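Severity: low
Component: inverse-folding endpoint
Summary: output formatting inconsistent between runs
Steps to reproduce: submit the following structure tokens with default settings.
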């Protein structure tokens, strides 16, 4: 196994993607070093080394990256439509600063490989599954202007790093992820955890922000993490790879599935188009990931939503967000 006995640094390891990344690496036999800051670690294991670190500080990043084989950067994160509308610089600043610091530390400390999770927000508008090479065919959507261009710059920065160092970088562009350990805070959560929480609370009428016709490609975080780790193993070339479910679904269809898996099918659904939302269509072409990585998602959307809802009932509802 590629990761067996390797020391892998997971930044943001107590967050949504980071926690799932740690769990998958442990399954694959890795020794995992995790940076935590304000949020405590969710899981415990003898193969986890916890390091207190502020990723805004290069000294902390250097200490965390010392002696590691690989780095999986999951710090910084993404923020939902409501927070983006109210504080558009928050996610941009967090991702820009922490990624630059962690990239520099990994380079200076001699890490062999680095997993950079980019974003579907880098793409221009397209009403079809968009391919990796089409990113520069147009500007980002206006709703993703700041965040999408920040992600584009970080991809260029990764290209700079590989020209000046021996470190190999895997560059992944995931679609919107959901699943276990997601943020269910009503003030800051993304659409799926927000809808699941409210469905389990039996909210009626069931108010949904935006239009029912908005199309997305959602991926269960377990699949997203697996795809990222496959890229780090098999395709650390700094050439981007889309990781997604590969199937278009409307928000209206997602709402129906969530109400079904939570036993709240009789709720009166209302769509509030006056509330913040983003682009009407976003789907990525995943044929490259299938061809190069052998990647295919294991969770269907309904299976993933049911898994997430059941996890939230048993575990997530007891966590302080």
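Observed output (run 2 of 3):
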């Amino acid at each position: 196994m590629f990761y067996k006995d390797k020391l892998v640094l997971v930044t943001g390891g107590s967050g949504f993607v980071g926690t799932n990344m740690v769990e998958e690496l442990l399954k694959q036999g890795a020794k995992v070093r995790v940076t935590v800051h304000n949020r405590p670690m969710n899981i415990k294991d003898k193969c986890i080394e916890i390091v207190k670190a502020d990723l805004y500080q290069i000294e902390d990043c250097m200490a965390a990256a010392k002696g590691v084989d690989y780095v999986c950067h999951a710090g910084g994160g993404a923020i939902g439509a409501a927070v983006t509308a109210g504080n558009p610089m928050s996610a941009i600043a967090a991702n820009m600063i922490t990624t630059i610091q962690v990239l520099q530390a990994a380079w200076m400390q001699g890490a062999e490989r680095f997993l950079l999770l980019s974003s579907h927000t880098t793409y221009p508008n397209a009403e079809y599954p968009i391919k990796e090479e089409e990113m520069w065919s147009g500007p980002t959507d206006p709703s993703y202007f700041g965040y999408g261009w920040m992600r584009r710059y970080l991809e260029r920065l990764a290209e700079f790093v590989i020209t000046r160092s021996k470190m190999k970088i895997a560059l992944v562009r995931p679609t919107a992820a959901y699943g276990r350990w997601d943020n269910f805070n009503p003030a800051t959560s993304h659409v799926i955890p927000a809808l699941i929480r409210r469905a389990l609370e039996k909210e009626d009428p069931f108010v949904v922000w935006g239009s029912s016709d908005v199309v997305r490609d959602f991926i269960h975080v377990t699949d997203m993490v697996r795809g990222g780790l496959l890229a780090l193993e098999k395709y650390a070339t700094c050439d981007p790879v889309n990781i997604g479910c590969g199937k278009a679904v409307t928000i209206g269809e997602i709402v129906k599935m969530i109400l079904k898996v939570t036993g709240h099918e009789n709720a009166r659904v209302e769509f509030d188009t006056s509330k913040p939302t983003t682009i009407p269509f976003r789907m990525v072409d995943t044929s490259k990931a299938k061809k190069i990585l052998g990647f295919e998602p294991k969770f269907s959307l309904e299976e993933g939503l049911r898994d997430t809802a059941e996890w939230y009932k048993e575990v997530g509802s007891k966590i302080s967000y």
